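User: Structure tokens for this complex, please. No commentary.
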Amino acid sequence: MSWLNKLSVLFLFLTLGASSGWANPTGAGIYIDITRVSERPFPMAILPPVQDGGAIAQARMGEKFAEIVKKDLELMGYFRFVDRKAFLGDPTKRIRNTTDVDFPSWALLDAYALAAGWYQTTETEITLEVRLFDILAGKQILAKRYRARHDQLSWIAHRFSNAVFEILTGEPGIFETQIAFVCRRGRLVKELCIIDFNGSNFRQLTDDRSIVLSPTWSEDGKSIYYTALNNKKKEWQLYRYDLASASSRPITRFRGATIGLAFDPVSHLLATTLTKDGNSEIYLLNLDGTARKRLTRNRDIDVSPSFSPDGEEMVFVTDRIGSTQIFKMSRSGVNPARLTFKGLNNTSPVWSPRGDQIAFAGMDTDGHFDIFSMNSDGSGMTRLTYDTRNNEEPTWSPGGLLVGFASNRRGRYQLFSMRPDGSKQTQLTAGGFDHLMPAWGPRSR
Amino acid sequence: MSVARLDSISSLAAVSFEEKSNFRKMIIASVVGHALLFAFIFILNTRMAPRRNLAITPGPINVMWARTVSSPNATPSYKLPAPKVRAIPKAKDRTADPKLVLRKRSRATRKKEREDLETLARRREMAAALSDLQQDLEKKPTPRPNNFPSQGKGARSLYPAGPQGGGNVQGNPAFTGYLASVRQIITDNFVWIQKKDQLRAEVTFQIDGEGNILRPDLTQSSGNNAYDGAALRAVRKSSPLPLPPATFLDHIVSEPLVVRFDPNSK
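Assistant:
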């Protein structure tokens, strides 16, 4: 038999074998379908990075780094950290690669992942290397190296938290985002303020002794737009605060009030409510403040616009049916459809960045507001806050991972965050002043 | 005073004296008789009453009295039973105390042993429960997969054919129950942050005779590395799985198990 015939026979043999299921036994096997996810949080452990030489002894920096990362991830409500008291082995051992990790011991503690590393310091800088290990797979899945000033240790920790979150969930983290809000500094004085996502690093941005309302972020996260009452001219104006220069300037001046700001992701324009024509109507504005297009035309009040992530639709509040309800319409202003049919006062709708849900505040029969969520078609209304006085003005974090809101459950209005299902409610601000109208900034800084 | 009177008086005196002596004799006889009577009664009582031993004795003493018994076989015995002596407990050998031995071992070892025992107990319970279920069901006819009576040779089922790797165990409630327990274990370990993603992944593995998961392999990726990692972790964390009933053990260890992770499937 010639070599060609032998090759043909061999090819035929392999083809038959593959079709019979030897190479790819499709259909063979016992099938098990997993249609639910566990309600358990993700268990992991973090070892404080160990100092590995350096000019200056900064023994506590590793502990501080680990503590920041732990608080960041716990804030999300999806992670659970193994208690350090249960750690086995020497916690000061330097872990550089997989051979240094006792995977069976960590598996015994029910840890799915382990973060560990080391650092070196100079007089002004710290160089930190951190590793993330998959305990069950027995391998390293993340390695990061950072160099920064000593006072930027928090920034390093937040960046590592973002990396850990993304590698374990597939979603970028929000640990470098900020929240802009209104802080009341007197009976008729409201200023623009800002905090980090976890409530730290509080700063007051304006000091105009005016009334600031409705802060909203630009899409690039470099500016904050807001409306404020000009005390001298006694008129409302739209302002833009630049974070880099730490200064604000007026953009436009309209007769009447400017209420509620939202960015259109398609046209990249600002949508707001103006009363310049004698009635509250929703307009699209150019970034220089001039009116581009009027979206609503009726004799009723239309306020608080919020666009869907793709910009094709918009939700807003109107009283055209006799009570304050939430409607949805196309971006061109046609085909309005009612979304809320329960309650008499539903306000402040915000569309989730994921596009599937809309959060809003609704007044219950006791006269208090609570935060609710519903599907984008108005179905599946779910109550997220219960019997805790007023909970208002929801705002979504990037990715729809958390919901920020203002609540006076403990006296003064303070800012809180919670998971989209209403769990893990965490207070972010404190103090003797009211903190209102939170606006969660985008990821880029 | 006349003689007669004197005579009568003397006779009376004589009679009186005679009567007196007879009376005296009677008194004496009465006293003696009473004394004898009392003595007899005394003797009789002392013989019938139990004796009291006033001496100090080391322990109780049981006294058996003779008595008339009707049974000719019963023999009254005066033998004192042996005193009951309380046994002095032996001192415990503390070096053999299992709790003391357990305490000396490291915390990690104790925890591992406890987990091993719990795992073994859980697996035994599951195997016993499934064996009992199988025994009950063996008395009933095995339901056909398509729930329709046989329509004769060559009849076509009205339902689409599924994976046929199970042979005749498919549709067996005991086998299905075992798979349900495996599914629950893997679900409990499937930790995934996003609940509404349209992601689907498959992990294939085999188990050995001890329930250990062997060579878990991602046979279909979801396109999301994090989701694939969560699926693989769920399978690895579930090892060892409970042992199936002995009837199905050979079948399960010889076939691959394919776990399809699709939280949004109905």
